[in-house]
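Structure ticket #2291
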Amino acid sequence: MCIDELALDFDAVYPAAWPARDVGWISKDLDSALIEIDQMLTDLTEQAPSAWTEDALRSHPHWEAIRRLAHHALALMPVEPWNAAP
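Resolution: structure written out below.
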């Protein structure tokens, strides 16, 4: 997978989560984490193309923060969100 495909995949899925948030399947904490991930990816895009290299993925502090936040967001996701009543 190319580095920029990570963000493209997130960009494709993130807006699709909004209806789930609106009906209560995505908690406020999870929503906040997703918003922060989105902003961090935007910030990386605005920095420079050098933030979108394999080396940067391993060493850039923003990528490390995104990984930590994504891990946190994953822990906030319900096991079966689509089967639970809002």
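Closing remark: The mean pLDDT is 83.
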